[in-house]
Design goal:
The structure holds 2 protein chains of 2 kinds. The longest helix of chain A is centred in the middle third of the chain and has 32 residues. Chain A is α+β, with helices and mostly antiparallel strands. Chain A has one domain: Cytochrome-c3 Hydrogenase, chain B. In chain A, helix 4 runs antiparallel to helix 13. Chain A is globular. By secondary structure, chain B is of the alpha/beta class. Chain B has one domain: Rossmann fold (3-Layer(aba) Sandwich), CATH 3.40.50.1450. Helix content of chain B is 27%, strand content 24%. Chain B contains 3 helices and 7 strands, in the order βαββββαβαβ. In chain B, helix 1 crosses helix 3. The chains are: A alpha+beta, B alpha/beta. Chains A and B meet through helix 1, helix 4, helix 8, helix 16 and strand 18 of A and strand 3, strand 4 and helix 2 of B. Strand 18 of chain A pairs parallel with strand 4 of chain B.
Chain lengths: 568, 158
């Protein structure tokens, strides 16, 4: 007899992501991922000036603002084959790198750590033992007795003062929670520190983007930041030096805290390297352009089928046909209709809604189902890191080796690369990606300073729009994976616009061949100790960092829980 | 005295953007006194943490679901202000309540928080507010000015 559970954030006026699982014998037997909201931002863009698209698309999502902005200008520039001045590339690169570091830190500590860390257990910890453990793992300056005692005290006061209410929604005391009180306390200490550290990344985005969270400095053809070596009005060397201080602070935390914490969670929850692999076709794109034409990139991307790193095919640049011709979207299981019953390329993409109701074997999601050469593909940090490794990208090899060595040491058993195809593997890959991005951020800062020192202060090439029809694609290896915007422009106006977002790839429903998407596939065989508290399902879904593109930030006075579980 | 007027919401989802539209109108119409910062927070969350730390007064303007008839004006104070961490499948679950909870946890909560808002009429995909919500913008601006004025932070009309 199987039991059906539905996890649905129904308490919002409109829900976002709904996960259904059939549970049998304490394991997930079948899963459905359903986007509960129609995005349709594409409709708003039709007929508009392509130069305005980025400012609108960055409001698609409350989390990934800058990534849509950058991808949108790249799409329009690709349609016009417009070169982007070097300084503009560097400034954009720094913005997206800083944004990604922010995203990774917040995801791990504030959105998913509490799937693994029991806040109430931390109360039972001995702060001095916690400090001793922390200091044996890392030289981070805030791992000492003083810090751990203060954290313990703060937590105790909170709970004694009846204020644990802010944490009401955790699965405290769940049988799947395995960390010792000391490790839990250490995690809580770093949770608090991470709240402060993430500010450094915001400061970088705010200085370079003229405003955060919604940057204002982008333009089709470059950026609007005037550069100067001496003036106070613009982006000066002095302000860039301030940026460097924020970069250094992030580097310190990422390498001495984030890396060690992920290693520890991986080692203490080693059984989670066996769950959550799902779809093992991995797609990523190259990013951090290093030239004006966007043909050279700091890191590689490509496509891996069935975990076969040796057979990887690389994606080289924005004009790469292997990339451009491989993407299609199916709506067989989505609440849309196409004129013909077959998957469509994004340039021909249609957005005609056809809501039916949730049908297990029919249509059940507002998300389309993208495929790469007819197959579902996992995107995100794991796809990125595996493609980097397959392409022999040295920094990835170095950080991946370091991570696996650390986990092996803490677990007391050899953990190999195969462990990466898992729920925990996605957390490890995200951290590896964060380390790489922190180094690249520093490098891009150096490149910008050097280029300015050479006397090049150019930041913008004005676009000109032809009368006839042109089309272009912009892609970006965003924190959650490949993001692409596809634009068709006619007579200087947008004729078609389609965004294929990372969570479309990962959270998609079954495709034309009824193959499950990555979330759905990854949940198969996940253990579920208590169907009323499906912590294990959340662990795997959260490991993708779900981000259904539809930010609503309404203040909801009525509810204090957002995940409702219905057992049928 | 440090105060922030925070406009929250998504400007591509009709009345969800009310908070942003009201702070824009406030800035167009008034010069804010020293110590008062107006922020268009859009749909951001944790990014705001630094700007909202250790405030004397936080005035939030947002679309509010209070179960009232659509278009109603809403004012939340003290215990009515939602402060908690959500558990959600998606980071979009992170909202104002989580940011306020994080400030609480850091011991950096505003001394006083007031939320002014509107029960939305529509949150469909649109760059425009509904006519009912548009009509409420001047009232919300006036209310915001009053909230500031009674705390000795009166804005000056431009």
């Amino acid at each position: 007899m199987s039991k059906r559970i539905t996890i649905d954030p129904i308490t919002r006026i409109e829900g976002h992501l709904r996960i259904d699982c059939d549970i049998e014998g304490g394991r997930v037997k079948k899963a459905w991922s359903s986007g509960q909201m129609w995005r349709g931002v594409e409709q708003i863009l039709l007929g508009r000036d392509p130069r305005d698209a980025w400012a609108i698309t960055q409001r698609i999502c409350g989390v990934c603002t800058t990534v849509h902005a950058v991808t949108s200008v790249r799409a329009v520039e690709n349609a016009l084959q417009l070169e982007v001045p070097l300084n503009a590339q560097y400034i954009r690169n720094m913005i997206i790198l800083a944004h990604s570091i922010h995203d990774f830190i917040v995801h791990f500590y504030h959105l998913s750590a509490l799937d693994w860390v029991d806040v109430t257990s931390a109360l039972k910890a001995d702060p001095d033992k916690t400090a001793a453990l922390a200091e044996s793992l890392s030289s981070w300056k805030l791992n000492g007795k003083h810090e751990m005692r203060a954290t313990h005290e703060r937590l105790k006061n909170f709970v004694n003062g009846g204020q644990l209410g802010i944490f009401t929604n955790g699965y405290w005391g769940h049988p799947a929670m395995k960390l010792s009180p000391e490790v839990n306390l250490l995690a809580v200490a770093h949770y608090l520190q991470a709240l402060k550290i993430q500010n450094h990344a915001n400061k970088i985005v705010a200085i370079l983007g003229s405003k955060s969270p919604h940057i204002q400095n982008l333009a089709v053809g470059g950026v609007s930041n005037p550069l100067a070596v001496d003036s106070q009005q613009v982006l000066t060397v002095e302000r860039l030096l301030a940026v460097k201080e924020h970069i250094d602070a992030l580097q310190d935390f990422v390498k001495n805290v984030y890396m060690v914490d992920v290693g520890a969670v991986g080692a203490f929850y080693a059984d989670w390297t066996k769950y959550g692999a799902g779809v093992t076709h991995y797609l990523s794109v190259p990013d951090i352009p290093l030239d004006t034409k966007g043909t050279q990139f700091a890191f590689p991307g490509g496509y891996i089928e069935n975990k076969n790193l040796a057979g990887q095919k690389q994606i080289k640049n924005f004009n790469d046909d292997f990339w451009g011709k491989g993407v299609e979207e199916s709506v067989k299981h989505s609440w849309y209709d196409y004129s013909e019953k077959k998957p469509l390329h994004p340039y021909q993409g249609e957005t005609k809604p056809n809501y039916t109701d949730f049908q297990d074997n029919g249509k059940y999601s507002w998300i389309k189902s993208p495929t790469f050469y007819g197959k579902p593909a996992q995107v995100g940090p794991l796809a990125r890191v595996l493609n980097m490794l397959a392409a022999g990208y040295e920094p990835a090899t170095q950080y991946a080796t370091g991570t696996l060595d650390l986990v092996s040491k803490l677990a007391g058993t050899k953990v190999g690369l195969d462990a990466m195809h898992s729920t925990i593997g996605r957390h490890a890959a995200r951290m590896i990606s964060c380390c790489i991005n922190a180094d690249l951020l520093s490098e891009q800062w150096g490149l910008l300073m050097n280029n300015m020192a050479k006397g090049d202060l150019k930041t913008f090439n004005p676009p000109t729009f032809p009368k006839d029809e042109v089309m272009g694609v912009g892609f970006h290896e965003a924190p959650r994976g490949v993001l692409s915007h596809w634009v068709v422009i006619k007579d200087g106006k947008i004729k078609n616009y389609q965004c294929v977002v990372p969570s479309t790839w990962n959270a998609c429903p079954r495709n034309d061949k009824d193959e499950p998407g990555p979330y759905e596939a990854s949940l198969l065989d996940n253990p579920v100790a208590d169907p009323e508290k499906p912590l294990e399902v959340l662990r795997t879904v959260h490991s993708f960092d779900p981000c259904i593109a539809c930010a609503i930030h309404l203040t909801d006075k009525e509810s204090n829980t957002n995940v409702s579980v219905k057992v049928v | 005295m440090r105060a922030v007027v925070l406009g929250v919401g998504n400007t591509i989802r009709a009345d969800e953007g009310i908070g942003v539209r009201v702070v824009e109108a406030l800035e167009r119409g008034y010069v804010l006194p020293e110590g008062v910062v107006v922020i268009d927070a859009g749909t951001s969350s944790m990014e705001m943490l630094d700007d909202l730390s250790d405030l004397d007064f936080l005035l939030v303007i947002d679309a509010v679901n209070d179960g009232k008839p659509p278009g109603s004006l809403i004012r939340l104070v003290e215990d009515e202000v939602p402060v908690f961490f959500r558990r959600n499948l998606s980071p979009h679950g992170i909202g104002l309540s989580d940011v306020l909870a994080a400030l609480e946890l850091l011991g950096k909560s505003p001394k006083e928080t007031v939320i002014l808002g509107l029960q939305p009429v529509s949150m469909d995909l649109s760059l425009e507010l509904t006519p009912q919500a548009t009509a409420r913008v001047p009232e919300l601006v006036t209310q915001a000015v009053q909230e500031l004025s009674v705390r000795g932070l009166a804005p000056t009309p431009r």
